[in-house]
Write a structure and sequence with these properties.
By secondary structure, this protein is of the alpha/beta class. The chain contains 10 helices and 19 strands. It has 2 domains: 131 residues, NAD(P)-binding Rossmann-like Domain (Rossmann fold, 3-Layer(aba) Sandwich), CATH 3.40.50.720; 234 residues, Dihydrodipicolinate Reductase, domain 2 (2-Layer Sandwich), CATH 3.30.360. It has a 9-stranded mixed beta sheet. Strand 5, helix 5 and strand 6 form a beta-alpha-beta unit. Helix 4 packs parallel to helix 5, helix 5 packs antiparallel against helix 10 and helix 8 crosses helix 10. Bound molecules: alpha-L-sorbopyranose. The site of alpha-L-sorbopyranose has 5 residues, from helix 8.
Length: 386
């Protein structure tokens, strides 16, 4: 069996999620390759050394430049903040490494396009971390839509609501600095529903958006882990230069209408991603915090007995579930990462294209940029104009 040696950049929230996924793939799926967690990389030697030991990596590096040129590495997995993606991905592609990159692909559309061009030129496999596509319930929705059961899609509505920065004293973390993250709630949260919308309903045609920054300055951050952060009491303040919330409407190439909302100011909503699709023969609804379930309405059901039915997508017949537990033994957030890694490793071995790939990352960045432009211009923006 082929061995795939992975070098991963980043070791915090996503680094942990990817490390776990890389360890689990071979244990639950018939992975066509042996995955070797070879080298983990991070700037802070103390931190990366600890992560290497805790997450089960064989070695560590403190410079990604060394990692991407190592001959014993086949795959570069990028989990560092967004401002690091482009340089690492381009260097990795030029060194002939396959690349898995977290979302959003880059700080802006031009950079995303450059990354895609380099990856194509190098002929390597590339995948982007739109992990919610890999929830079995989302895959089931896709199968139902493709089978024609809900008919012609008319509406799509999606929201991604969090509440972790409502306190004006919550520090200025990297997710609030444009030069590091590219875009705020739209790029961090909206990127996921833009991708899900494209996956389930096809490409966007035009968008009309509005963005808002409620808290304009925050104390400089001292420590951050996951989505928790702290600042010193006497910390200086810095400017928030990304959106706290974004709302937009969209028209799809197939004529459907979409309504979208991304915010980190929805009190009580922790990681509330939801998407609903209405076709002329049925409707489908997915709520991430109940990620094992799909709500399905079929207009073909018998009159008098119609209504939304709740499908628990946990049986062996449901996508990916054959690999886990008996029916009804639910799975969670981390499993979406295992599924995406399984697909990526399978693509490398089979030679087939990985999906979603950098082209999907570019399309997502195109929609993000169109929404930002539309919000500045206070007018609709056609996706094809970018
Ligand atoms: C933070 O808002 C975050 O962790 C995102 O960066 C992830 O992509 C999303 O899955 C959960 O929320």
């Amino acid at each position: 069996m082929k061995t795939i040696n992975v070098g991963m950049v980043g070791y915090k929230f996503m680094g942990k999620a990817h490390s776990n996924a890389l360890s689990r793939v071979g244990m639950f799926f018939d992975c066509p390759a042996q995955i070797n967690k070879a080298v983990i990389c991070g700037r802070d030697e103390e931190g990366v050394k600890k992560a290497a030991a805790k997450f089960g990596w064989q070695a560590y590096e403190t410079k990604w430049q060394n990692l991407v040129s190592r001959e014993d590495i086949d795959v570069i997995d990028i989990t560092a903040p967004s401002d690091a993606h482009k340089a690492i991905a381009i260097a990795a592609a030029q060194n002939g490494k396959h690349i898995f990159c977290e979302k959003p692909l880059a700080l802006n559309l031009d950079d995303a396009r450059e990354m895609l061009a380099e990856a194509r030129k190098a002929g390597i496999k590339h995948q982007i971390g739109f992990n919610y596509r890999f929830a079995p319930a989302v895959r089931l929705m896709k199968d139902i839509i493709d089978s024609g059961k809900i008919g012609t899609i008319r509406h799509l509505r999606a929201s991604y609501l969090q509440d972790f920065i409502i306190d004006p004293e919550f520090p200025l973390v990297w997710r609030l600095r444009k030069e590091v993250c590219g875009s705020g709630s739209l790029g961090d949260l909206g990127a996921h529903f833009i991708d899900l919308a494209r996956y389930l309903a096809g490409d966007f045609k035009s968008v009309t958006g509005m963005q808002k920054t409620f808290i304009k300055s925050r104390p400089l951050v001292e420590n951050m882990t996951g989505l928790s952060a702290s600042a010193r009491e006497d910390a200086a303040r810095g400017e928030v230069n990304v959106d706290d919330a974004t709302a937009f409407v969209a028209e799809f190439q197939n004529g459907a209408l979409g309504v979208f909302e991304a915010t980190r100011f929805a009190q009580g909503h922790k990681n509330d991603l939801s998407i609903e699709i209405n076709g002329d023969k049925g409707s489908l609804k997915f709520v991430f915090e109940r990620m094992n379930e799909v709500q399905y309405f079929s207009a073909d059901d018998e009159e008098g007995l119609q209504g939304f039915r709740l499908i628990q997508a946990t049986e062996g017949v449901h996508p990916y579930m054959y690999a886990w537990w008996p029916a009804g033994h639910v799975i969670g957030y981390e499993h979406t990462f295992v599924h995406e890694m399984y697909e990526f490793m399978s693509a490398i071995v089979s030679g087939k294209a990985a999906s979603p790939d950098f082209a999907d990352g570019v399309e997502c960045s195109r929609v993000i940029e169109a929404v930002e432009l539309s919000s500045q211009r206070r007018a609709a923006v056609d996706i094809d104009s970018l």
